[in-house]
Amino acid sequence: MPLIRVVKVTKSFREESLPVTALDSVSIEVEEGAFLAVCGPSGSGKTTLLNLIGCLDKPTSGNIYLEDDEISALGQKELTDFRLRKIGFIFQDYNLIPTFTAIENVEYVLWLQGVAPRERRRLALEVCERFGVAALAFRRPWQLSRGQQQRIAVARAVVHRPRLVLGDELTANLDHKTGQELMAFLKELNKEEGVTFLYATHDPVMMGYADKIIRLYDGRILE
Amino acid sequence: MLLFKLAFLNIGRNPRRSVITVLAVAVGLGALIFLWGFSDGTTDQMRENVIQLVTGHAQIHAKDFEKKLTIENTVPEHRSLVKRLSGMKNVVAVTERAKCEALVGTSENSRGILLVGIDPVREVKVTRLLNYVTRGKFLMPDDKRGILLGNRLAERLEVDTGDKIVVMTQAMDGTLAGFAYHIKGILHTGSQSLDEMSAYITLDSAQELLGLEGEVHEIVVRLKERKALPAFLASVKSFLDLKVYELMTWDQVVPEVEQWAAWGEAIIRTILVAVMFVIGVGIMNTVLMSVFERTKEFGVMIAIGTSPIQVMKLIFFETFVLEFFGMILGIIGGYAVTGYFGKVGIAFPELERAFSKSYMSTVTYTQVTPAHVIQSIIILFILTSFISLYPAWKAGHTEPIKAIYKG
């Protein structure tokens, strides 16, 4: 059974009074443990698709399932809880909480889940160790390089063992070498721990890391 | 606890803004404490002025005397009553008076006055009348033809100490009675009505003038403190026949004082509302700015699983922390300033004429009333909590997509 099923999903909205269809009857299936890239030009609907799967938005029509749960039918409270427990996010701008140290940023999701302080510190340090940023754990985000910040962001996204990790242009702000290192690292994590990755990119090099590529154009899937 | 830590860290993000907010709360609360202290000090002095100037804490008359000032309406069995009152708990002193309306005049001027016969020895234990003699001397028990006049009355009559005046009134038997008196002293109490409308002679002289034959119109009681009044009244009512006597408290004798106090309180409350509004707007501005600056951050927090309630709690807590430190500073500052002026006083010498109508002193000693401080804190706390509702709601309902992608 696939981990994610997107069934005939359409997302439309109004932009400056004009109707825009960001996704038009899109259907996809993502198997558990997949390393999947969503690609397409700017405005093709990559981010919209990721936002819908990530429970940050609701489709205008169609259904989205994560395992047996129809997430497109959940209320705001359930969606928040769903995101907290089952999904990890990696953003283009890393978006770490600037007042927290690196380790506190990683711990934050565990705190939201109610994990005891000692345990969450242990788990967060463990992940930082694995990602090679343990030595930077007590630095603030502004004391870290872009690559280091993105590694901390990845650590935050996976520390609670989510079923799915979503990344939106996660290497766009990194130089080529650091971007490739990060992708190799995520791929390794995918292979070793079976975490499902779904990431949006328009960089052909980054697409190369994917097991499968979903190509979007004007809100439709190109076969 | 991580949320509390985040709140503390966020406060430190923009130290200048946080300090300004803390100072706004501190100055606001300090001002509230001081203003309320000023109001409390003023009204308390007004009350004490009335009590010590003329009324004592309580008075006993024959039924309906104070309303009509009928001279035949003397206090029944006043000697035994005075003896009983003198032995009561918390009673410092008791004195007796005779009172009537009279005409006082010289060959050129005359005025209608309230003539009060006092026992000079006992009167000074009950009121501060002695302290208000600005020229001449206070009455002595054997001053059969000495009189004290208020300074304004003396000005109107164009007389001074040593001058002779004539006092005329109706005696008990209905005949016209009159004596000539030497002005022994001039009083300046600061109370317009007393300084313009009152004259004092000895009780013996008043009894002789009115033909009272040892009777009196008024028994005045001074207690240790105002707080003892309710218990004293309860005790007196247990033995005093209120069909025969009237028992009046100081504020029933001079009701204007409490009216002035209520008016002053209303003004202070109006000022408080204005001060609260200014503080409130200041805090709301700061919190809103801080929320708008962090829209993206709230979007990310909500995206990764923070609930709107947790974000709202964060904003509430940040506001509370600023408020807490502001309040601590405000309480310290408010107490310090109010305490200082409670000792040295604030003088308004140029307002003496205006103040004299309301028994106010020209020097106000501010006074901290803990209940009012607590009220100020509660009001400010409720206000700022209410004010932080909107920014908190705004932060809690950040739309992650808009916040993250559009900033």
Which properties best describe this structure?
heterodimer; A: 223 residues; alpha/beta; Rossmann fold; six-stranded mixed sheet; 7 helices; globular; B: 407 residues; alpha+beta; six-stranded mixed beta barrel; two-stranded antiparallel ribbon; 17 helices; 12 strands
What's the SSE blueprint?
The complex is a heterodimer of chains A (223) and B (407).
Chain A: E1 4-15, E2 18-30, E3 35-39, H1 46-53, E4 61-66, E5 69-70, H2 76-86, E6 87-90, H3 102-112, H4 117-130, H5 146-158, E7 164-168, H6 176-193, E8 196-201, H7 204-207, E9 212-217, E10 220-222
Parallel strand pairs in A: 3-8, 3-9, 6-7, 7-8
Antiparallel strand pairs in A: 1-2, 1-4, 4-5, 9-10
Chain B: H1 2-11, H2 15-55, E1 58-62, H3 65-68, H4 78-86, E2 91-105, E3 110-118, H5 120-126, E4 133-136, E5 146-150, H6 151-157, E6 164-170, E7 176-187, H7 192-197, E8 198-202, H8 203-210, E9 218-223, H9 229-239, E10 245-249, H10 250-253, H11 256-293, H12 295-303, H13 308-344, E11 346-347, H14 352-356, E12 363-364, H15 370-387, H16 389-396, H17 400-406
Parallel strand pairs in B: 3-8, 5-7
Antiparallel strand pairs in B: 1-9, 1-10, 2-3, 2-6, 2-9, 4-7, 5-8, 6-7, 11-12
Helix pairs in contact in B: 1-13, 2-11, 2-13, 2-15, 11-15, 11-16, 12-17, 13-15, 13-16
Fold and architecture overview:
The complex is a heterodimer of chains A (223) and B (407). With 223 residues, chain A is an alpha/beta fold. Chain A has a single domain (33-56, 83-222), classed as Rossmann fold, CATH 3.40.50. Chain A contains seven helices and ten strands. Chain A has helices at residues 46-53, 76-86, 102-112, 117-130, 146-158, 176-193, 204-207; strands spanning 4-15, 18-30, 35-39, 61-66, 69-70, 87-90, 164-168, 196-201, 212-217, 220-222. A six-stranded mixed sheet of chain A has the order 6-7-8-3-9-10. In chain A, helix 3 packs across helix 4. The longest helix of chain A has 18 residues, at 176-193. Chain A starts with a strand and ends with a strand. Chain B is an alpha+beta fold. Chain B has two domains: 2-50 and 258-406, no CATH class; 64-241, no CATH class. Chain B is built from 17 helices and twelve strands. Chain B has helices at 2-11, 15-55, 65-68, 78-86, 120-126, 151-157, 192-197, 203-210, 229-239, 250-253, 256-293, 295-303, 308-344, 352-356, 370-387, 389-396, 400-406, and strands spanning 58-62, 91-105, 110-118, 133-136, 146-150, 164-170, 176-187, 198-202, 218-223, 245-249, 346-347, 363-364. In chain B, the strands form two sheets. Chain B has a six-stranded mixed beta barrel with strand order 2-3-8-5-7-6, surrounded by four helices. In chain B, a hairpin with a 4-residue loop joins strand 2 and strand 3. The longest helix of chain B is centred in the first third of the chain and has 41 residues, at 15-55. Chain B is elongated, with a radius of gyration of 31 Å. The two termini of chain B are 28 Å apart. The model of chain B has no long low-confidence stretch (mean pLDDT 89).
